Amino acid sequence: MEKKFLFFFIVWIILGILYHIFYFFNKDTKLKRKLYPWTLFLSGILFILFLFWLGIHKWKSSYIAVPMMILSIIVIVILNIKFTKFCGSCGKMIYLPAFMIKIKYCPKCGAEL
User: Fold this and answer.
1) In terms of domains, do 37 and 8 share one?
2) Contacts from 15-22 at CB under 8 Å and sequence distance 24+?
């Protein structure tokens, strides 16, 4: 179990670094907008598969825990897609801070979103 968890941990660190490099240094806004939902969706599926690989389905509470985790991952992915924008001018990834607040200009370059 410890080797599995270590592998799980290392994979997430590597994915986090790769995602950060791609979304921070890449200026191609069209490509970012196209790939962002897919990276979130595939990361969510990978996380669920890791949970099963680590043995979550053997828990006594798995009949409740597994569907709730899957539902929460789906909600997190949908909210990330909805509240993340990319500046068309500089390519910056912008997280919208709240439901009611709309950001009209890029905080990095000032371009209209």
Assistant:
1) yes
2) 15/43, 15/46
Nearest to 39 by CA among 82, 81, 95: 81
Quick one: what percent of the chain has pLDDT higher than 90?
A: 31
Give the CB-side neighbour count of residue 73, counting CA atoms within 13 A.
17
Whose tokens are 């000032």? That residue is: 110
pTM to 2 decimals?
A: 0.79
Number of domains in the chain: 2
> 6: which 2 tokens?
């270590």
Question: What's the rounded Cα separation, in Å, for the pair 70 and 68?
Answer: 5
69 and 108 part of one domain = no
Each residue's pLDDT tens digit, 79-113: 998 888 899 888 888 888 776 777 888 888 888 87
Between 49 and 59, the higher pLDDT residue: 49
| 52 closest CA partner among 73, 38, 36, 78 | 73
